[in-house]
Amino acid sequence: MLTGCTWLQQRLDKFLGGEEGDTAQELAWDGMDAYENGKYAAAIEKFQKLKDYYPFSKYAILAELKIADAHYQREEYEEAIFEYENFERLHPRNEAIPYVIYQIGMCYYDQIGTPDRDQTSARKALETFQRLIKQFPQDQYSRRSEEKISKCLKSIVVNTYGVGLFYYKTKHFKAALQRFTSIISDYPDVGYHQQALEYIAKCEASIAKEAPQ
């Protein structure tokens, strides 16, 4: 019976593999070869074919992960995030999950611009790295995340401080006060604590002057 099942699986592999007769293992090897040689589009094609033709193969999980990695290497961050998050949803107990969460964070991290730009990427990267550290505090990818968090925090704080200065200079003192206060309460150890305190005092003094007597 086992021999018959093996023969049937081999025949099915040949049929599903298409005209070239690629087996799941061959597609996995071809995909890895393309990936390791920087041919990421070809790698995605091979791994996607593997997923489509052999969804229950032991190589299918590898294909899911490497498709995400290939998109990341191509700087196709939205596609990479989608694939990583889908992997995490489908395989929550897989040993690669710490790496997957780290890579989601890196997709956001790599999109962090200058501090004067929108900080959505920095905030999402920070949230993702913090989630990784909380879930897997002893994992090597958590230790790597700690190195990235400081840049995320600095980018957010510099942006917040800059917005506060803008509001202060344009005499929107309440809005400025809110920004400087958030630095003290939310990011006390990033290096802008003293400057924020000084502007909090200035804002409060200016607000007091504007108050009706």
Please explain how this structure is put together.
The protein is an all-alpha fold and 213 residues long. The protein has 10 helices and no strands. It has helices at residues 2-16, 24-36, 40-53, 60-73, 77-90, 97-109, 120-135, 140-169, 173-186, 193-210. The longest helix has 30 residues, at 140-169. The protein is elongated. The relative contact order is 0.06. The model is unreliable at 1-5 and 11-20 (pLDDT under 50).
- Round the mean pLDDT to the nearest integer and report it: 90
Choose one word for the global shape.
Answer: elongated
Percentage of residues in strands? under 5%
Distance between the termini: 96 Å
Secondary-structure topology with pairs:
Blueprint: H1 2-16, H2 24-36, H3 40-53, H4 60-73, H5 77-90, H6 97-109, H7 120-135, H8 140-169, H9 173-186, H10 193-210
Helix pairs in contact: 2-3, 2-4, 3-4, 4-5, 5-6, 6-7, 6-8, 7-8, 8-9, 9-10
